[in-house]
Amino acid sequence: MFRDPDPCFDSPGGHPVALRPLRVGMIGIGTVGAGTLRVLVRNQALIAARAGRRIEVVAVAARNLARAASIVGDAVALTYDPMQVATHPGVDVVVEVAGGTGPARNWVLAAIAAGKHVVTANKALLAEHGGEIFAAARQHGVAVAYEGAVAVSIPIIKALREGLTANRIEWVAGIINGTSNFILSQMEGEGLDFATALAQAQARGYAEADPAFDIEGTDAAHKLALLAANAFGMPVNFADVQVQGITTLQRLDVACAKQLGYRIKLLAVARRREGGVELSVQPALLPATHLMAQVNGSMNGILVQGDASGLTMYYGAGAGAEQTASAVIADLVDVARLDGTPATQRVPHLGFHPHALRALQVAPRAAVRTRHYLRVPVHNDRCMAAVGRLLAEQGIAVEQMEWKVGSADEARQVLVLTGESPQGTMDLALDALQALPEVAGPCVQWRVEPLAG
Amino acid sequence: MFRDPDPCFDSPGGHPVALRPLRVGMIGIGTVGAGTLRVLVRNQALIAARAGRRIEVVAVAARNLARAASIVGDAVALTYDPMQVATHPGVDVVVEVAGGTGPARNWVLAAIAAGKHVVTANKALLAEHGGEIFAAARQHGVAVAYEGAVAVSIPIIKALREGLTANRIEWVAGIINGTSNFILSQMEGEGLDFATALAQAQARGYAEADPAFDIEGTDAAHKLALLAANAFGMPVNFADVQVQGITTLQRLDVACAKQLGYRIKLLAVARRREGGVELSVQPALLPATHLMAQVNGSMNGILVQGDASGLTMYYGAGAGAEQTASAVIADLVDVARLDGTPATQRVPHLGFHPHALRALQVAPRAAVRTRHYLRVPVHNDRCMAAVGRLLAEQGIAVEQMEWKVGSADEARQVLVLTGESPQGTMDLALDALQALPEVAGPCVQWRVEPLAG
Questions:
Q1: CA-CA distance, B170 to B158, in Å (whole number)?
Q2: Catalytic (active site) residue B265
Q3: What class, spelled out in words, does domain B368-448 have in CATH?
Q4: Among candidates B349, B110, B170, which has minimal Cα distance to A12?
Q5: Backbone phi, then psi, for B13, in 5-degree steps?
Q6: Which of the listed CATH numbers 3.30.360.10, 3.40.50.280, 1.20.1540.10, 3.40.1170.60 matches domain B156-316?
Q7: Looking at residues B115-122, what average pLDDT do you find?
Q8: Contacting B residues, span 132-191, partner chain A, CB-CB under 8 Å
Q9: A259, exposed or middle or buried, with CB in 10 Å at 0-12, 13-18, 19+?
Q10: Single pTM value for the model
Q11: Could you report the predicted ipTM of this complex, rounded to two decimals?
């Protein structure tokens, strides 16, 4: 239905003016790189109609040149050496899709120093070296765009940096690691234990051979650091994110949460609190009827609470070659549109102009007040009262307390939903609980996040 | 926690350079205008930190000057005459929040002719006069921004114009009228009939005294015309949107849909189809477990299917003073960032450069193929077979057929979910059904939209 539009574009008076193509150098031509090239070619005319000019890949760095040649064709210069692409005189913008942090940092800094704009989907790189990279980009008057670094198909960086600029952002909460979310969805939907669900994720290609980055929460923490910077106007602060992955989550607690009307998700939270901003990644119970609890499988979802906008939510695929390409190319279109404008008039890298960025104090874990879920194994059905009494003594309000349905008398499980209390208070209470003679095994505690507006 | 940042901003080298404030003239200071002013003042420092300069309201046109003065304070020039604001030499950008189409068109065109950028949340104005207004803006090198015109708090125009530019958009489906959605949610949740639910919406301030625009689908159609233009690269085409409101929807069908596992929503759909693009607004059955079926009350939700991104969804408030202000101010920040850049390097008004816009053929209603829901009142429980036979004769596949639970023998209701068939075929089948001797009353038909990726 879409006829090939004229790739030459209008002047203010409406007459066509040919702009030269935006010339792209790519470092890496793996899954995401190949997907980006495929979408650029397939939707070439559409993309040019939006960008105002063609976007052409002119140089590619790859480890396997024969394989790369079969993907990129004859018109593209190929090299083993990423530095040649980063500094190529015929390149306007460098797309870094090789991954990793050490060498990638060098390539990106070299591209910036050579006056190239940079587009990357590399969250680890920006979480660890974002400050240095953005400063270099400012110095050289180039843009570093990274929509693909967070929740690939969802334009959430754009929403925070441009769509919600009227707002004081109160909090952001995201399901932003597709692998973990797939595993948790399988544990809840199919009643699997963690190891089996992980094996399924690996079998389906959702999890890497070494899944540690995903299941230990590091990947989500990288993304959270970028979200928080854009939401609050703070420098990228990955080091201070408190991270807890899903590896210790038990099937039993997924079932208990379900009984209470909740689902457990790996939730990344950036929230303004008294005493500092919370930056945390951990499994948390969400009300099963909440929109965020419907974000299942490998999908991602992000909730943003602004003082004017109220709650808004963004949902989409969190991984995939073309889904990432969607973000990478959107960044290229932005670059095609802005290339040549004064650097001061572009959207700042972190949404706020650098002089306004403030290193915000990060709230210590112990100070963060939330509701909590507790599971307390006890010896018999006369022990519930002791659990309630101890929590009261520790100053923790009990909002709901019930037995796990179907647990046998010799392995009774008391389930508790508490009111809000600081993590530090809860930690002390857990120690005290554990010492009760009525308690028959390790107590389990996870956060409850109502995610209300 | 956020300390007042320096409202003066950086040069490429990182040294502060004071940019003069962006000066705003407002036409209208009703609910949305007052909300915009309130948020601009409350978040002044934050907004300046993002925009790179202060945003100051310097002139306001209002019908009640005394009331306006109590809102805007002494430093702002007040006038009865919107034209004075539109052409005010001390104004960089005109915010039109007065509403209506005739006079608003004149004010906006006058502002554009005077070289002012324009920000508006007026969907009716742009749906009816968008072509003329955008052409004038191109001619004069100014921007016309309208994020607040569709699903106010959700940056959906930005998502389509900038976030999803890599994609061939296959379809967009939205719940984009909060009033209708509130009414439908009450009908489903509380079992109310339409008139009672409408009265509740009016009592809560969700519906205007004259609710026709909302409940007859016109408001959603205005917004759909803007979404479709940005999705497909077509001029704004409101005249060809096929519109059916919710006024004829019966409580019984809401209950029957529920029995079948569906919810009825007023759905705006823009979809590429063989034979043209579908542009339609009508009540439709969505699977009750679908994310879009969880968009309840006065909230809005929009699904976008792109060929690379896959499905993405956007959710947030569809109305409200500060929610609209969030979008209006985001547009002002965009203007503050771009003011002074060449017009050719800005995001085009409809996402595509004007020379690439194509007037796409709109599929006639009769040609649109969807699944369907039917409710057929019959005389007794031996009549179901006749209904099935007739549908088979008419070439309509039956996927599910069952009795309405609880209907008495003398008023039996046959419920049918069909496979895909063109609306024209369905219309003929409905005529034939209605003529069957077994049929005891008016047959009802609504679309079923699986909204699958």
A1: 17
A2: no
A3: alpha beta
A4: B349
A5: -80, -5
A6: 3.30.360.10
A7: 97
A8: 135, 138-141, 147, 153-155, 158-159, 161-168
A9: middle
A10: 0.95
A11: 0.95
